[in-house]
Amino acid sequence: MRHVERVVVLALDGVYPFELGIPSRIFGAADGRYEVVTCTVDGKPVRSNADFSVMVERGPEVLRTADTVVIPPVTPASVTAELPAEVTAALAQIRPGTRIVSICTGAFVLAAAGLLEGRRATTHWQLADHFRRMFPHVALDPDVLFVDDDPILTSAGAASGVDACLHIVRKDHGSALANSVARRCVVPPWRDGGQAQYIEHPVPGPTTTGTAATRQWALERLGEPLALADLAGHARMSLRTFARRFGDEVGMSPGRWLIQQRVARARQLLESSDLPVDQIAGEVGFATGASLRQHLHAAIGVSPQAYRRTFQTAR
């Protein structure tokens, strides 16, 4: 029988309902690999930041059974440098080594509990200065979607919680399952944790042409040498216009985006096939196996062989 990971979501007073539901929605779509339960610090209802309260069936004792604990965000005004005694007591139930995930202002809770001391972390970009003043010993990076400083993972606001949970599914079970979960939930299958939190998307005019069709065209041709001129030509734009519009829509240059997509595809092939590294490099558009090794190491800090070994062991 396969192990079912227990994910315990701790709902605190002032919890944001949208983010509270993310773990159940994402992990619940992972083919029974996870069990998601929700608790509060005393087993009683908590107020949300909306016009309703949240009823739960469990108290803090279930935190002792967790493989992963998720702390959704709470109203920023309710966050202090010192936690209420009942929150501290609840967090003390978490076993050492348990994976802990925060979404948005949930990072304030972890920092106040001393769990982020000396670690890299992130939170919502609008609260970065406030966080730094409160917790100067945390290495805050406010420009990214999430930070995985194993076994603690912190994520930015709202939808970045989806990215963080998909990252966990991918890390635990591979890209195929994570992509399947993303399709079921109708969300992007992969946004790199290092992607910028805040991208200003100008509202396009009614006749403005975007780059989405060209991005899909490129994804179907990753094994081919794709230059900026090829992409701009497909989009029927000048090089300058295409690069500007691509940056507005995606938040990065076309070249960086292509590298990210090629690395993502290479990870899928490393997980699901026994193809040699040099052949995988060619399949995804890297000139050599050395180039793939360089880009994979830059993205996730490991070699192709080590990455493949990790997932073969998991299987």
UniProtKB/TrEMBL annotation:
<keyword id="KW-0804">Transcription</keyword>
<dbReference type="Pfam" id="PF12833">
    <property type="entry name" value="HTH_18"/>
</dbReference>
<dbReference type="InterPro" id="IPR029062">
    <property type="entry name" value="Class_I_gatase-like"/>
</dbReference>
<keyword id="KW-0805">Transcription regulation</keyword>
<dbReference type="InterPro" id="IPR009057">
    <property type="entry name" value="Homeodomain-like_sf"/>
</dbReference>
<feature type="domain" description="HTH araC/xylS-type">
    <location>
        <begin position="212"/>
        <end position="310"/>
    </location>
</feature>
<protein>
    <submittedName>
        <fullName>Transcriptional regulator</fullName>
    </submittedName>
</protein>
<dbReference type="InterPro" id="IPR052158">
    <property type="entry name" value="INH-QAR"/>
</dbReference>
<dbReference type="GO" id="GO:0003700">
    <property type="term" value="F:DNA-binding transcription factor activity"/>
</dbReference>
<dbReference type="InterPro" id="IPR002818">
    <property type="entry name" value="DJ-1/PfpI"/>
</dbReference>
<dbReference type="GO" id="GO:0043565">
    <property type="term" value="F:sequence-specific DNA binding"/>
</dbReference>
<dbReference type="Pfam" id="PF01965">
    <property type="entry name" value="DJ-1_PfpI"/>
</dbReference>
<dbReference type="InterPro" id="IPR018060">
    <property type="entry name" value="HTH_AraC"/>
</dbReference>
